[in-house]
Amino acid sequence: MRAGAVLPRVWRGKRAVVLNLIEYIQNATKGVVPMHMPGHKRRTGLAPYLEELAAHIDVTEIPGLDDLHCAEGILKQGMEKTAALWGSRRAFWLVNGSTCGILASLYACVPPRGKVICARNCHRSVYNGLGLLDAMPVYIMPEFDTETGISGPVSVQSVEILLDKNPDAALVVVTSPTYEGVISDIEGICAAAHRRGIPLLVDEAHGAHLGFGSGFPGGAVRAGADIVVHSFHKTLPSLTQTGALHINGDIVDEREIGSALAVFETSSPSYVLMASIAGCVDLIQERGGELFRFWRENLGEFYAGTERLCRLSVKGPAWLRDDSKIVISTACTDMTGTSVSRALREEFRIETEMSSVNYALALTGMGDSAESLSALASALLRLDKAASLAQVRAVPAPVLPGRAMGAAEARRKKSVAVPFGDAAGRVSTEAVWAYPPGIPLIVPGETVSKELIELIELYLSAGVALRGTAGLQPGMLCVTADQS
Ligand SMILES: Cc1ncc(COP(=O)(O)O)c(C=O)c1O
């Protein structure tokens, strides 16, 4: 639970047991500068619809109110507007986050046991989709920056090589931008996939705001990706769980996507969430130019104000990046990413989105104000003075573990829990990831290597919380009981 530092104070209070969820959230967030999702940043004054969202519009599919899964009226119009704004052939609204869009895309495009060319740094929803289909992933290893410990872009060349070796692949999947804002050459990857008639799915969960000009580069819809999945809540002023799935071109059958969404998305779509999507789309259409400019100017001031940092750095690796995701590197200091996040929380009441060994991530959104960014800049300048320079603590690039069996088969195997340190050579029956970002370090069916154990130990020593699908104690892993 990311708000861990705040929650105990609430629970320790005498009234903790009688607080309802709203009071609870209000208590836990009072006075905290939210350098994290959702993009509306609790600034309900930003636009009237944010103030208005409440139970009085929490209705259901009564006549006149349309049906998300079979839209013909007001919801259809809203989705058409969404497609027009982003420039896609068709847009589907999502009320179960990007997760349901990704699951539905895989289900629609990949036959059972089909082959998928997939970036290894994909979110766990991609792995879950592959697991459900018992699909065969062929991994693209993105570049890696050992100083920050951040995965880089997926190169067109690496995709070309895998496409040549796997002409029977049903789909190519990449994440762009990544959690840390790294953008891949989607046009180039598209061209490579399309030359072979293979569709490209871009998980653009963190980039719904890209491609609108005003200094936010990229935008996978305009780059021609066949399917693009957006979470609105991550960067735009919209409620959590909202997003859109866009379709382009003519390789992907939109009816297949529609029926797959009916499998993975709730049959009771929330009108509160849909009202949020509609409001967000209207807001961008009507005031997008001004709001994107304002966001960009505030970021410009933040980056100008932090040029004086001598030990910490907010420059990020030198790849094409969406710099609305502020990467606070501690690589050359005596601090870790987790200790910077803790100091920001405890000394400055600023909550970051995530932290890792050598960096913390402050996620900005359209809802950020000049004050929130200026508070972050001042806090970083103060922390910079207190930090000492130290030798760079390199984070080794992840090594792709060997695959002993498919994920579906491994999950069904009899398993035993062992300490990570004793797991070398054993086959994992669970996935393990740091959350956020939710990118698995190992998935079921893969063999634990010495390098992986070292990487896990590095994460744990830096205070990065790891989670596994088996829900074991930290430091334990489920492996197949059968060692042969
Ligand atoms: C890259 C990426 N893709 C997909 C998702 C899932 O998005 P959602 O939480 O909207 O379901 C996440 C969540 O953090 C993510 O980081």
List keywords for this structure.
3-stranded antiparallel sheet, Aspartate Aminotransferase, domain 2, 19 strands, 7-stranded mixed sheet, disordered N terminus, 14 helices, alpha/beta, 35% helix, 484 residues, binds pyridoxal-5'-phosphate, Molybdopterin biosynthesis moea protein, domain 2
Could you explain the architecture of this structure?
The chain has 484 residues and is of the alpha/beta class. Among the domains are: 30 residues, no CATH class; 230 residues, Type I PLP-dependent aspartate aminotransferase-like (Major domain) (Aspartate Aminotransferase, domain 2, 3-Layer(aba) Sandwich); 74 residues, Alpha-Beta Complex (Molybdopterin biosynthesis moea protein, domain 2). Helix 5 packs parallel to helix 6 and helix 11 packs across helix 12. The structure holds pyridoxal-5'-phosphate (PLP). Pyridoxal-5'-phosphate binds next to helix 5.
